Amino acid sequence: MMAVRHPTVVVTGASGAIGSATVEALQRRRVQVIELTRPSLDLSSMASVRATARELNRTAGHIDALLNIAATFTTRYQKTKEGFETMLATNHLGPFLLTNLLRDRLTPGGRVITVTAPSTTRVDMDRLQDRERFNAMHTFGATKAANLMFTFELARRAKRWEIRANAFYPGLVRSELMREAPRVVRLAARLVSRSPDRAAHDLADLALSPAHAGTTGWLFKGTRHIDAPRATQDIGQQSKLWQKTTDLVELEGGF
């Protein structure tokens, strides 16, 4: 009798509100989950991302889905040891690099799902690195828009490997992500935010359901396809952002 091969799903931000709920949802479906939490992966450090990718490439026989869930928000301008603004590094550069470095472990039909938001903030990489022009909400919004542009460009590039790439907007979810946001923002969010369980269930569906096997280049809210902001749909800008990011993280190879 042949052994049943259970899907393997890699989850970043696995100790956060959405991440931990998603891990539980996946485990209920008998999925092998590789949980990446802050002690094992610091997405703001490209050295840490490379080390984690090396380990996964060595130990993971296959990856059926990569869920880029981890994100951070901070009100202060901070630079990483490698010279990147922290939110830019954690929310965009790190997931970009990790996804590319795991290319050869993603199985044909594998899925990359990046948790983001339908942000309309313009992505200006020079501004995002400029301490004098730093604005926390602008930077966070720009990294979310960058997630969308990364996803759409990845969807095109990854077709030759038969890998699907989609973005997922969970809506407002009760979590600690925005704990440094202004009080009025936190209070408003608390009034309308919901449990992460629904988002976790939807993420598990997008990662595993045969219904989404051929879907790529979409933004989902729950399991419903929604339109991404027009600014993030510019193919030329997506390509430029990909190349700029490739240069910043010194990526060789990848998609």
Could you give the topology of this structure?
Elements: E1 8-12, H1 17-27, E2 32-36, H2 46-59, E3 63-68, H3 86-101, E4 106-115, H4 125-128, H5 136-157, E5 164-169, H6 183-192, H7 196-208, E6 219-221, E7 224-226, H8 235-248
Parallel strand pairs: 1-2, 1-3, 3-4, 4-5, 5-6
Antiparallel strand pairs: 6-7
Helix pairs in contact: 1-7, 2-3, 3-5, 5-8
Description:
It is a single chain. The chain has 255 residues and is an alpha/beta fold. 41% of the residues lie in helices and 15% in strands. The chain has one domain: 3-Layer(aba) Sandwich (Rossmann fold). The chain has a seven-stranded mixed beta sheet with strand order 2-1-3-4-5-6-7, sandwiched between helices. Helix 1 links the parallel strand 1 and strand 2. Helix 1 packs across helix 7, helix 2 packs parallel to helix 3 and helix 3 packs parallel to helix 5.
Strand content: 5-15%
Biggest β-sheet description: 7 strands, mixed
Total count of helical runs of at least 4 residues: 8
> How many strands appear in the DSSP assignment?
7
Number of domains: 1
Looking at how many chains there are and whether they match, the oligomeric state comes to single chain
CATH topology: Rossmann fold
**Chain-averaged pLDDT:** 92
Residue share in helix: 40-55%
CATH homologous superfamily assignment: NAD(P)-binding Rossmann-like Domain
Q: What is the rounded distance between the termini?
A: 37 Å
Q: Secondary-structure element order, as H and E?
A: EHEHEHEHHEHHEEH
Shape: globular
Q: At the first level of CATH, what is the class?
A: Alpha Beta
Rg over C-alpha atoms, rounded to the nearest angstrom: 17 Å
